[in-house]
């Protein structure tokens, strides 16, 4: 991700006092409430010095025990972007568990779902709703991951057809592990017990020709917001 550049009319604050004055707050508790109002976690803030002894504020998302150190000068937009990125990264494991549950509930197939860390093509990463945070964390926009079906797919369809038509269509950028192989029908896969090994499938498994390049993949993947 390119370094965020403030808009021409966006103020850059040299210290916490300037930020508090701009927002009309009396202290750090008010500033913490300001950030927490738009997040899923309470926030705690303290004034610190960064590694170069420059003035900074340390902001922690209390629910996750994770935070960021923001050195001055800074803009509010830069702070918001980092907080959103941290919260998204913290929430992703739970979101993937819910996604796996939705797939299992509808399809009656046991699955494990994880983020596909092997995707590195920058254009493809952007297309599937993923980006690097300022601190280098790979963040998936969670609203791009869904399973919007209420009826299971026909048992005559193959595992490969199901992955392409449903899983990777609505949840690009994940890897799915399940019992079965591409050519097996869903009816056959649904009858397998825990003695059958799990097989791992990623977005490359959407295509018959594994040599198909990422420029063709991008055209088929919905963009995240």
Can you put this structure into words, describing what you see?
- The protein starts with 15 loop residues before the first helix and ends in a 7-residue tail after the last helix.
- It has a three-stranded antiparallel sheet, covered by helices on one side. A three-stranded antiparallel sheet has the order 4-7-8.
- The chain has helices at 16-23, 28-36, 76-107, 122-127, 159-170, 186-190, 214-218; strands at residues 43-49, 55-61, 66-71, 111-115, 130-132, 138-140, 174-179, 198-201.
- It is built from seven helices and eight strands, in the order ααβββαβαββαβαβα.
- The chain has two domains: 16-74, no CATH class; 90-218, no CATH class.
Reconstruct the topology from this structure:
Blueprint: H1 16-23, H2 28-36, E1 43-49, E2 55-61, E3 66-71, H3 76-107, E4 111-115, H4 122-127, E5 130-132, E6 138-140, H5 159-170, E7 174-179, H6 186-190, E8 198-201, H7 214-218
Antiparallel strand pairs: 1-2, 2-3, 4-7, 5-6, 7-8
Which keywords apply here?
disordered C terminus; 225 residues; disordered N terminus; 2 domains; 8 strands; three-stranded antiparallel beta sheet; 7 helices; alpha+beta
Order of helices and strands: HHEEEHEHEEHEHEH
Strand order, largest beta sheet: 1-2-3
For the CA atoms, what is the radius of gyration? 22 Å
Strand residue content? 15-25%
Give the fraction of residues assigned to helices.
25-40%
Runs in which pLDDT lies below 50 for 5 or more consecutive residues are: 1-6, 208-225
Shape, principal axes of CA atoms:
elongated
Global mean pLDDT: 82
Number of strands: 8
Q: Would you tell me the structural class of the helices and strands? A: alpha+beta
Task: Quote the distance from N terminus to C terminus.
Answer: 15 Å
Q: Give the count of helical stretches.
A: 7
**Count of all domains:** 2
Largest sheet at a glance? Answer: 3 strands, antiparallel
């Amino acid at each position: 991700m390119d370094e965020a550049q403030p808009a021409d009319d966006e103020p850059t604050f040299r210290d916490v006092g300037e930020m508090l004055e701009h927002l009309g707050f009396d202290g750090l508790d008010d500033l913490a409430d300001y950030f927490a109002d738009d997040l899923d976690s309470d926030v705690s803030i303290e004034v610190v010095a960064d590694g170069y002894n420059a003035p900074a504020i340390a902001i922690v998302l209390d629910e996750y025990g994770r935070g960021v150190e923001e050195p001055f000068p800074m803009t509010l937009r830069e702070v918001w972007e980092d907080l959103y990125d941290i919260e998204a990264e913290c929430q992703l494991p739970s979101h993937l568990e819910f996604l796996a549950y939705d797939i299992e509930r509808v399809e009656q197939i046991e699955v494990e779902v994880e983020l596909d860390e092997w995707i590195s093509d920058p254009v493809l990463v952007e297309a599937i709703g993923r980006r690097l945070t300022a601190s280098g964390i790979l963040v998936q926009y969670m609203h791009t991951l869904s399973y919007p079906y209420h009826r299971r797919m026909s048992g005559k369809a193959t595992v490969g057809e199901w992955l392409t038509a449903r899983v990777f269509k609505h949840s690009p950028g994940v890897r799915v592990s399940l019992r079965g192989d591409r050519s097996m029908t869903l009816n056959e896969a649904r009858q397998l017990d825990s003695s059958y090994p799990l097989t791992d499938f990623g977005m490359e498994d959407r295509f018959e020709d594994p040599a198909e390049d990422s420029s063709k993949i991008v055209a088929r993947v919905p963009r995240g917001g």
